[in-house]
Design brief:
Layout (H helix, E strand, L loop, with lengths): L9 E6 L5 H13 L3 E6 L4 H7 L5 E4 L6 H6 L5 E4 L9 H6 L3 E4 L5 H16 L15 E5 L3 H12 L3 E5 L5 H6 L3 E2 L3 H4 L4 E4 L13 H4 L7 E4 L8 H10 L4 E4 L6 H11 L7 E3 L9 H21 L9
Parallel strand pairs: 1-2, 1-3, 3-4, 4-5, 6-7, 6-9, 7-8, 9-10, 10-11, 11-12
Helix pairs in contact: 1-12, 5-6, 10-11
Family: Belongs to the D-isomer specific 2-hydroxyacid dehydrogenase family.
InterPro entries: D-isomer_2_OHA_DH_cat_dom, D-isomer_DH_NAD-bd, NAD(P)-bd_dom_sf
Keywords: Oxidoreductase
Length: 320
């Protein structure tokens, strides 16, 4: 249980998309120092592999791997699961709470990596995918954030360096706090779409699912650009196709391509110009794919597990 120090523990590192080797070594250094055994299940191909491996685990570290009722039914000893990253919709929080398993994430650990990717995509788009034609500069342009957590604030910091104007809406952060951090608070989600760039930094919930729709996107000014490093499901995919058809100036920069191949192909077909200018899809979710973010997220997850068992700490516990 939490707070019972000095016991032997087994920590399962279950990563369908494996951490860099150096990050794994650092994770193992943390768990070994606590007297825990680290079991590695990396690049696995079948959920059956996960169901088998979780049987003896006291704790789990995951990335985008799904922890659902089926996993929990096999996890007889599991007390804690930590998502190495910010988003956590891949954990069934009601199921973990029902079984008395604590769920955590590692907020802020990959914020800089995601922020740099955002700007990489913005520059690629603004310079027409480096095709030799004239693009535009980012200085004096506006960027609006839906959600103003650690990642959005990291993007905001870079935007300030580029001489951009920042705006933000976050229902959980008071307007005066947003202003203190250097962004202009916006009263509604719709108000964000008055600006050229809108960057999404919200979790996938019943409220946010498919909430970015045609009505909002058509409000954007000339050159309007949506940036999505959050979750693909927050965007209404059919509406996105319609916006591409209606507006030749609209751009979508996305690190979370639809899982549905047909939806992705429909967006690509609707673009109508050179792929990589108006529509950017990364090959796979790349926001946290840096050596530094691998280290930060993985080590933070390991430290949170040790602190949970040895000291009873639950600072980053998630609620359903």
């Amino acid at each position: 249980m939490a707070g019972e120090a000095g016991k032997a523990r087994t920590v399962l590192l279950a990563t369908e998309k494996a951490f860099a080797a150096d990050a794994v070594s650092k994770i193992e250094a943390v768990t070994s120092a606590a007297g825990y055994k680290l079991v590695r299940l990396e690049n696995y191909k079948s959920k059956d592999d996960l169901l088998k491996a979780v049987a003896d685990a006291d704790a789990m570290i995951i990335r985008s791997d799904k922890v659902d009722q089926a996993v929990l039914d096999k996890a007889a000893k599991l007390k804690i699961v930590v998502r190495a990253g910010a988003g956590y919709d891949n954990i069934d929080l009601k199921a973990t709470e029902g079984k008395g398993v604590v769920s955590m994430n590692t907020p802020g650990q990959n914020a800089n990596a995601v922020a740099e990717l955002v700007f990489g995509m913005m520059i690629t788009s603004a310079r027409n995918n480096y095709d030799g034609t004239s693009g535009f500069e980012l200085v004096n342009r506006s960027i609006a954030f839906y959600g103003f957590g650690a990642v959005a604030r990291a993007v905001h910091k870079l935007a300030q360096g580029f001489g951009m104007k920042s705006f933000a809406y976050d229902p959980y952060i008071p307007a005066e706090k947003i202003a203190e951090m250097g962004a202009t608070p916006v009263a509604t989600v719709a108000g964000l779409f008055e600006h050229q760039y809108v960057s999404l930094h919200v979790p996938l919930t019943a409220e946010t699912k498919a909430s970015i729709n045609k009505e909002l996107l058509m409000k954007m000014p000339k050159g309007g650009t949506l940036i999505n490093t959050a979750r693909c499901e927050v965007v209404h995919e059919a509406d996105m196709v319609e916006v591409f058809k209606a507006r030749q100036d609209f751009c979508y920069l996305c690190d979370v391509a639809p899982d549905d191949k047909a939806a992705k192909e429909a967006m690509t077909a609707a673009v109508g110009d050179k792929f990589g200018k108006r529509l950017i899809f990364t090959a796979k979710k790349m926001g946290a794919q840096t050596l530094e973010a691998n280290d930060n997220c993985g080590v933070a997850a390991a430290n949170q597990i040790v602190a949970f068992f040895e000291k009873g700490e639950t600072r980053f516990a998630l609620k359903a």
